[in-house]
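Let us begin with a simple case.
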Amino acid sequence: MHHTVSNQILDNPKLLSHFMEQSYWIKELNRNPDSFKLFQKQMKVIYKERPTDKINSAIDGIEMISSIIEATK
């Protein structure tokens, strides 16, 4: 594995966790270090770090707060 790829994985706890949970990435990244972008995208989907996931989470929080306010009236 290229040193830059391994350093990026070791520097980010979520990437490291995803790397250890999905062991097939060891072989994939050893063979093709260019697939690191795909590895990062998959990690973001699993840990819900995409912009759409963050927006949906904020909307859910706002809806929960508004329902609590409505229930207390």
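The second case is a distinct protein. As before, the sequence precedes its structure tokens.
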Amino acid sequence: MARSTVVVKADETRSLKLSPAPILPAMSFPVSNQTGMDIRIVVDGKRIRIEKEGD
């Protein structure tokens, strides 16, 4: 599966596209960042990681 990365700035909402299976179309989900710091969301196959941006 493909790896994708989305950066969400502090106090921002962005769309994140996820596909449950290769044959199904991707769906968009809104992701809100209320942490006060920029974050990076990494989707790698079935894993979703949230990291601090800038590390």
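The chain has a mean pLDDT of 88. Residues 5 and 42 are 5 Å apart (CA to CA).
Keep these points in mind for the review questions at the end of the chapter.
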